[in-house]
Prior knowledge:
Keywords: Periplasm, Signal. The protein is α/β, with parallel strands linked by helices and about 350 residues long.
Amino acid sequence: MRDPERLREETTMAFKFAALAATTALVAGMAASANAQTIRFGHVDPDDWTASKKGAAANIFKNIVEGETDLTVELFPAGALGNEDELVGQAEEGLTQVVMVSGAMSKVCPAAGVLDIPYTFSSATIAWDVLDGEFGDALAEHCLEQTGLRTLAYGETGFRNFTNNTREIRSPADMEGLKFRVQPIPLYVEMVSGLGGEPTPIAWTELPNALSTGVVDGQENPVGVIYNNGLHELQQYMTLDGHVYAADFILISDDFYQGLSDAEQQVVAKAARVAGNMGRAIQQWGTAEGVNKVQEEGMQVYSPTADEIAAFAEKAQPAVIEYLRGELGDDAVWIDNLQEAVSAASN
Length: 347
């Protein structure tokens, strides 16, 4: 028979070891929890990766990052965290770690507005070469200094095109006397005025009613936006002039980024590059599909010749460039830098 005292000592020791093991496990779990970080990724498009450029980009970003790191990515699509301006503000404050936005970027980094100079890019592939090259890298670095937001990669919202319900547009002369809804952004007002149309700033939510009631004769948007929102049902004519190429910016709070390990930074950067290209691919698919669908449903679509596009550019660019030079001041050098980069990529 075992000594009762000896048994009590062994039992006490066992409890101590068990308690130590439990405490060690708890501390390890707390440390792991502290090290595990969550990336909130916000954008304003639908989540459906098959139809949404930002949705596709966000989902593949999440899959890559979570598959190759211990980071967790929470997606907030369809404006769940607010509009683009609000998303940028959240990223600057570190409340949302990654956002994917387009037009809102030029509001916090005015130099990004040079990308909206009409008829700058003759094709998407030239835009990709410029944005993925030295110019895009330099613009990203400049905007990082201005905002504290690191541009991980560029995506694509697409080329914007004119539609109207009055007549086919083949030249700037065809735009005279027509009222076009534009975004409440001075650059777009200057562009349409330069082309001879009458720009009418109207909020996006009011556009369908403005078209239905004849407040405006036409509007301008990427093909996918026109088709997916039923604007082709309110407009008879579309001109594929591609007057503005809209880029998406995949942004991350640099404070958050610098807190990641080198290995995590590499994966996040890679995931963003893949995400940007995924968004571009979905956008290209949506444009091609959209053109076919709007025609099948009765819309008349015209593709201008190179000479006709040149005539549009001759009218639209001077007013916009003059406006931007006045707004940018010393940063107007970005206009010249962009033109040089486009020229190099086009040759």
